[in-house]
Each structure stands twice: as structure tokens, then as C-alpha cells.
């Protein structure tokens, strides 16, 4: 019987859910939910879902780079994601191709090169863990990485919040207010790179974008201001973490997909409430 099933069975007995590996998983998921919820608001506002998905796909090349160089997978992912974001911004400025075309080329090229490199270097990795997340093996060092990187992202978002929001609303108006749109755009891409790097172990490459989009989309239905939407998105993400993680222990299902499925369930359950409120206001 595997460790997940044992933990799930022990819920009905003593409170062994606070065993170290479960507690680390819960803390890691909460940290990711906080920062992904806030960052996800910009993904939704600026319609960057495809970019987030492409960035996550390129992360596997970062894993290969980190393992080959000895830097570690987190540092490798961060380096590759920042290079990906910078290259995309450069190509966008040149206007050679449409953005979605560029994203498709870079994302699939990065993923394919990563698989080839891993094969040639004969690196043995838990590919399924990187694709779908492996939250139950999170270490204290990775917890420090998640909360340190999350604090860095939140501090920069707070520092540039007004400019980033104004740029999202209207870039021409932001320029009229003497806001450096290029710098803010680059900063946003780099911050997304950091979020992807610290979140891969939790949700995995294939599900990373879901934690950026779904809680933010849920919050958008009820929030009246950008700040409120960011707070609510983080809150919905944390609720999804608790439901998904506990559900995975009960049902012996993968934790990353369970968390994402919980976030989607929250969105679907709250949608009728939003429609009902809208109908009442119209009357």
C-alpha cells in the first residue's frame, strides 16, 4: 500500500495529516496558490494564457539544463524561462510573426529539444512528476525556494502595481503617464518565469497554467477592483489546495491534478451564483 493511501486511511484515525511530508505539501501548495492567484490576474487581464502554457512547456528544457550543469532543476527552469520570455519579447518587437505563432514555435521547440537532450545525456528523471507535479516529495529547501521566490514576486508586483494595471487597461494612457511600458512588460514576463519555476513541482508542466487562470477567472466574476480580484484569486486558489490535497489523500488520486480539478469545480459551482446575481441586478 503506497504512502498516499496510508495517509488517506489515517485521516479517519489520529490526525496524522500533520505528518511532515503532508505538512510540507500543504505549505508548498498554499505558497504556490498565493502567488499564482495574484499573478494569474494579469494573465487573465492581458489574455496571456497561451504564453503561460508555452512558458511551462519550455520549463522541461530548464530541468535538463539544471541537471546536466549541476545547478539544480529550479535554477535551470528559471534561466530557461527568462531566456524564453526575453526572446519572445525581442521577436515581438521585430514583428516577424504573430505572437501566437511565435509562442507555438518556441514552446514546442523547447519541449522537443528538452526530450532529445535528456535522452542523449542519459538523464534519469521522474518525467511524470515534472509533467503532472509531485507535491508529496517537496523538501524544506524547495519550500524556502517557493516562499522566497513568491515574496520576491509579490514585492515587485506591489512596487509596480499601478503601472502594471494601467498598462493592462490602456498602453497609450500608460505612456501618457510616463510609464515605461517596455520595462513593465519585460518585468511581467520575468515574474511569470519565476512563478513557473517555483510552481512546477506542485502542479506540473501540463497543469501549471490552470492554477494561473482558473482561480483568477473565478475571482473576476465577483471582484469590483483589481486589488480585490487579486485577493480573491489567492483565496480561491488556497481553497482549491485544501479540497484537492485532502481529496487526493481520500481517493488516492494524483495531488496536482486533484488540486486543479478542485479549482475548476469551484469555478463551475460559483458560476450560477454569478448569473443569478447579475439577473437580480438587472431587475
Architecture overview:
This protein has 283 residues and is mainly α. Helix content is 81%, strand content 0%. It has helices at 3-10, 20-45, 49-69, 73-94, 99-120, 127-132, 140-159, 161-169, 171-176, 181-203, 208-220, 226-251, 255-282. The radius of gyration is 19 Å and the shape is globular. Mean pLDDT is 85; it is low at 1-16.
Q: What is the strand content?
A: under 5%
Give the overall form. Answer: globular
The number of helical segments is: 13
**Which structural class should the secondary elements be placed in?**
mainly alpha
How widely separated are the two ends? 57 Å
List SSEs in N-to-C order: HHHHHHHHHHHHH
Uncertain segments:
1-16
**Total strands:** 0
Helix content: over 70%
Over all CA atoms, what is the radius of gyration? 19 Å
Oligomer: single chain
Could you give a short account of the major beta sheet? none
Amino acid at each position: 500500500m503506497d504512502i498516499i493511501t496510508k495517509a488517506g486511511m489515517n485521516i479517519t484515525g489520529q490526525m496524522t495529516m500533520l505528518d511532515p511530508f503532508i505538512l510540507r505539501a500543504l505549505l508548498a501548495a498554499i505558497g504556490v496558490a498565493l502567488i499564482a492567484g495574484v499573478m494569474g490576474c494579469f494573465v487573465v487581464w492581458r489574455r496571456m494564457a497561451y504564453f503561460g502554457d508555452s512558458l511551462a512547456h519550455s520549463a522541461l528544457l530548464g530541468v535538463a539544463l539544471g541537471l546536466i550543469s549541476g545547478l539544480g532543476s529550479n535554477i535551470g527552469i528559471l534561466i530557461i524561462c527568462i531566456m524564453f520570455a526575453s526572446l519572445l519579447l525581442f521577436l515581438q518587437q521585430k514583428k516577424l510573426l504573430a505572437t501566437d505563432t511565435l509562442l507555438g514555435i518556441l514552446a514546442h521547440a523547447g519541449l522537443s529539444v528538452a526530450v532529445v537532450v535528456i535522452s542523449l545525456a542519459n538523464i534519469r528523471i521522474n518525467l511524470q512528476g515534472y509533467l503532472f507535479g509531485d507535491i508529496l516529495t517537496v523538501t524544506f529547501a524547495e519550500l524556502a525556494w517557493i516562499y522566497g521566490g513568491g515574496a520576491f514576486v509579490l514585492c515587485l508586483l506591489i512596487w509596480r502595481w499601478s503601472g502594471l494595471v494601467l498598462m493592462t487597461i490602456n498602453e497609450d494612457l500608460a505612456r501618457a503617464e510616463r510609464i515605461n511600458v517596455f520595462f513593465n512588460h519585460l518585468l511581467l514576463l520575468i515574474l511569470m518565469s519565476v512563478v513557473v519555476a517555483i510552481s512546477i513541482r506542485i502542479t506540473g508542466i501540463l497543469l501549471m497554467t490552470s492554477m494561473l487562470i482558473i482561480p483568477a477567472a473565478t475571482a473576476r466574476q465577483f471582484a469590483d477592483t483589481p486589488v480585490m480580484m487579486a485577493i480573491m484569486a489567492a483565496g480561491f486558489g488556497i481553497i482549491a489546495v485544501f479540497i484537492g490535497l485532502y481529496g487526493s489523500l481520500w481517493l488516492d488520486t494524483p495531488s496536482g491534478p486533484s488540486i486543479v480539478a478542485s479549482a475548476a469545480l469551484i469555478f463551475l459551482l460559483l458560476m450560477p451564483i454569478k448569473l443569478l446575481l447579475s439577473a437580480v441586478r438587472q431587475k
